[in-house]
Amino acid sequence: MWAEFTDATASPDAARAGPELFVVINPGSGDQDAQDRRAVLERVFGQAGRRFRFVDLEGPWNLAEAAEAACSLAERNGGIVVAVGGDGTINTVAQAAWRRGCILGVLPQGTFNLFGREWGIAQDLETAARALLEAQSQPVQVGQINHRVFLVNASLGLYPQLLQDREAFKRQFGRRRWVAILAGLKTILVWRRQLVLDIEVEGQHTVIKTPTVFVGNNRLQLERIGWEPSLARQVGQGRLAGLVAKPIGSRTMLWLMVRGAFGRLGDHEQVHDFVFGSLTVGVRGMRRVKVAADGEVGVMTPPLVFKVAERPLFLMVPRPEHRAPVE
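RE: above sequence
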């Protein structure tokens, strides 16, 4: 069950400081980091005289429920929902915020934080929280795959399996960088499946065989893997990025991953890249397929429709003088 917590340090004049903040922190089980983050936010928001409440949750298993509760409170009180965590946590809260039309604030605390980095949101919690207090709401593009929205990327085939294997390895060996690398190598070396896809891109039909399809909505990520700059600039302007690998074996796939890590993926002859507003993917021989959205893996029924969502997400973006440099 979720519960509301109002910081007693907020002053009686807090209403003049701005809309109330409804904060969702994904704590994990007995996560001391979550308690430390909560203490930082209590101090920053309290010192600023800002009204705020934490929407508590028992653990990651009821994050979606807490996000819905926070959005319901924000909707009734004219407030802002604030997601504290990595890209997966932010995506879950963004689902509810987008559906209800609530304004979303983001305090990135994950490993990659690609969504926050693209919008100049600091990785340091206290810095980001202080910037949030003076940030301005701005409509930003989100992608959509069937009923689910995504902020950074979505994919099917090899990449969802890689994410799933990585989580399994981390549960067994711990959350260390070398564990993630080892899990990725294992997935690539044993992956043999080639998907046969019926693809329609804005009226053009084709049948392709591929190990993976990747759709991007984050220019920063695309630039880092070496995507063509003229194409990357169109992402966020009513277009998404599509990357489809040609039928390849494990060695070539491993080489592609290495090139991507060094920003050289876009010019490889084994990768077909394009921009689009809508992409429909049918998967032959499969009634259900694994799909990843912002690092979270689920199962969907084809056909899969990737598109720019019809309406934007309203995001609290730092003022220019408070934006963090892109690292």
